[in-house]
C-alpha cells in the first residue's frame, strides 16, 4: 500500500471514529440516559409526517364577498385547502385597494412582507424586477403552460423566470347604464346591435348629448385624475379616442403623445364645461366615479370589466342593467384594450419550507378539481386558460370572451413602470385645471416617462454585470 493510500485510510478511520462519538453524544440530556439507545424504526408503510408550516396570505378583495362579508370566501378556500394539506396553516389578512399598496411597501421595506399575494402585473412585475419574488417555473406543468396565451406569460415573467401564476383575466373597457338609454328612448345610439360592439368617437358624443338633453338628472360620463388607482381606464380611454398606443411596441418609449390624443384630452376639458363629463374630475378617484355609476347617477363609466361587474353586483345602490362596451375610437377602428390579469406571487422570505407550502396553496387555488373553477367564478373573471370557457350563463360574459380579441400588450411590464405611472395623473390634472393643453401635458409625461424607462434599463444592465 502506498503512502498516499495509507494517509487516506488513516483519515477515513479518524472520521469514522469521530462520527461514532458524535452519534453517541447526540442523545438527550438526561443524566441517566443510555449511550446505546437505538433509533426507533417506524412501522412498515408509515411515512414521516411533514413538519407544520405557517404561511401568510395578504389579499386584495380579489374574490366577491360571501354573504356580504369581505374575506369570508377566502376563509372557505383555506378550510378546503387544509382538508388536503393539514400541515400547512394559512394566515389571511385582507387589504384594500386604497391603503393596501402602501401597506405592502412598508412591509417590504421592513422585511416583513407576506408569503403570498393575489394581485396584478402592475405591482408584481416591479417586485420581480427588484428580486423580491420566488420563481414559480418548477410548479407549472406543461399542460398548463401550453394552455395559456404567451401574452399572459409575458406579463407574468421577469428575466425568463415566472414570478406570477396567472389565474383570471378580463379586458378593461367601459360600462353603460343601459336602463337609462331605454328610458329616454335612445338605445339605438349604443352599438349593441353589432356583434363586436365597436363604435366611433362621434357616435359616443351623440350618446352623451342624448343623456344630457333627455335625462338632466344623470351625469353623461365620468373621468378622474386624483390617484394612480384605475389609471388603466384613463390610459386606454385616451389612447383609443386618439387611435394611439400608450407605449410603443417594444416598451422603450411613450407613444400616446400624439396630436389626436392631445385633442382627445382637450375634448375632455371642454366636455366637462359642457356638462357631458362630470365636474371636478381632477379631484376624483376611479372609485368615486364608479360609485356614482353604481348609484345610477352616471350613464357611462370608463374603468370597468367583467370582474368589476361581478364584484359590484352587491354594491349597487340603484336598480339598473349595465352592459360592457369597448372604448370608442376616432375612426371606428378596432379598439386596443388592456387586460386585467390576476394571479398569485410568492415573496422570497428566505424560507424554503414556506415557499414550498405557498406553491401548494397557489396550485390549489388555480387548479383544484373543485375549487379551481369555483374560485374563477368568485372572482367574476374569465380563465386565462384557453380550454376553460363558458363559465357563466350571462351575455355580458359572452361578450367579454369575444372582446379578448381586442386585448393588446399592457404597458405595465415596461422597465421602470412603477415610476412611469407616477407621472401620468399629475399631467392629467394640469390639463383639467387649465394649466396645460392636452398635447403639452402628454409631451411632458413622455419626457419624464421615457427617462424613467431609460434609467431603469441602465440600472438593470449594471446589476447584471
UniProtKB/TrEMBL annotation:
InterPro entries: Bact_solute-bd_prot1, SBP. Pfam families: SBP_bac_1. Residues 29-48 are annotated as: Disordered. PANTHER family: ARABINOSE-BINDING PROTEIN-RELATED, POLYGALACTURONAN_RHAMNOGALACTURONAN-BINDING PROTEIN YTCQ. Residues 38-48 have a biased composition (Basic and acidic residues). This is ABC transporter substrate-binding protein. Residues 1-22 form the signal peptide. Keywords: Cell membrane, Lipoprotein, Membrane, Palmitate, Signal.
Amino acid at each position: 500500500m502506498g503512502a498516499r493510500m495509507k494517509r487516506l485510510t488513516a483519515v477515513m478511520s479518524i472520521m469514522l471514529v469521530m462520527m461514532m462519538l458524535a452519534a453517541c453524544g447526540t442523545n438527550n440530556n438526561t443524566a441517566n440516559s443510555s449511550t446505546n439507545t437505538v433509533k426507533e424504526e417506524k412501522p412498515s408503510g408509515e411515512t414521516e409526517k411533514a413538519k407544520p408550516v405557517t404561511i401568510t396570505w395578504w389579499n386584495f378583495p380579489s374574490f366577491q364577498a360571501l354573504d356580504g362579508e369581505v374575506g369570508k370566501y377566502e376563509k372557505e378556500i383555506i378550510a378546503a385547502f387544509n382538508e388536503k394539506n393539514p400541515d400547512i396553516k394559512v394566515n389571511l389578512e385582507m387589504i384594500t385597494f386604497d391603503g393596501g399598496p402602501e401597506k405592502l411597501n412598508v412591509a417590504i421595506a421592513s422585511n416583513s412582507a407576506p408569503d403570498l399575494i393575489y394581485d396584478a402585473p402592475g405591482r408584481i412585475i416591479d417586485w420581480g424586477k427588484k428580486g423580491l419574488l420566488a420563481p414559480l417555473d418548477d410548479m407549472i406543468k406543461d399542460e398548463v403552460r401550453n394552455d395559456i396565451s404567451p401574452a399572459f406569460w409575458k406579463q407574468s415573467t421577469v428575466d425568463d423566470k415566472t414570478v406570477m401564476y396567472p389565474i383570471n383575466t378580463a379586458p378593461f373597457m367601459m360600462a353603460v347604464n343601459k336602463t337609462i338609454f331605454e328610458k329616454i328612448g335612445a338605445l339605438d345610439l349604443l352599438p349593441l346591435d353589432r356583434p363586436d360592439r365597436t363604435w366611433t368617437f362621434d357616435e359616443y358624443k351623440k350618446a352623451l348629448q342624448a343623456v344630457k338633453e333627455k335625462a338632466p338628472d344623470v351625469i353623461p360620463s365620468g373621468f378622474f385624475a386624483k390617484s394612480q388607482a384605475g389609471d388603466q381606464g384613463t390610459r386606454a380611454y385616451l389612447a383609443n379616442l386618439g387611435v394611439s398606443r400608450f407605449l410603443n411596441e417594444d416598451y422603450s418609449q411613450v407613444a400616446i403623445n400624439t396630436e389626436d390624443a392631445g385633442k382627445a384630452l382637450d375634448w375632455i376639458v371642454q366636455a366637462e364645461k359642457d356638462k357631458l363629463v362630470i365636474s371636478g374630475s381632477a379631484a376624483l378617484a376611479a372609485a368615486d366615479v364608479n360609485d356614482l355609476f353604481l348609484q345610477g347617477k352616471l350613464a357611462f363609466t370608463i374603468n370597468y370589466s367583467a370582474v368589476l361587474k361581478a364584484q359590484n353586483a352587491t354594491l349597487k345602490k340603484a336598480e339598473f342593467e349595465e352592459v360592457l362596451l369597448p372604448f370608442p375610437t376616432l375612426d371606428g377602428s378596432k379598439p386596443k384594450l388592456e387586460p386585467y390579469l390576476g394571479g398569485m406571487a410568492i415573496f422570497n422570505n428566505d424560507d424554503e419550507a414556506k415557499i414550498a407550502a405557498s406553491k401548494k396553496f397557489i396550485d390549489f387555488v388555480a387548479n383544484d378539481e373543485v375549487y379551481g373553477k369555483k374560485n374563477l367564478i368568485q372572482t367574476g373573471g374569465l380563465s386565462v386558460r384557453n380550454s376553460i370557457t363558458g363559465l357563466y350563463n350571462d351575455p355580458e360574459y359572452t361578450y367579454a370572451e369575444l372582446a379578448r380579441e381586442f386585448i393588446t400588450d399592457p404597458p405595465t411590464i415596461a422597465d421602470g413602470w412603477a415610476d412611469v405611472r407616477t407621472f401620468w395623473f399629475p399631467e392629467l390634472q394640469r390639463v383639467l385645471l387649465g394649466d396645460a393643453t392636452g398635447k403639452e401635458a402628454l409631451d411632458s409625461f413622455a419626457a419624464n416617462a421615457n427617462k424613467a424607462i431609460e434609467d431603469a434599463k441602465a440600472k438593470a444592465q449594471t446589476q447584471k454585470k
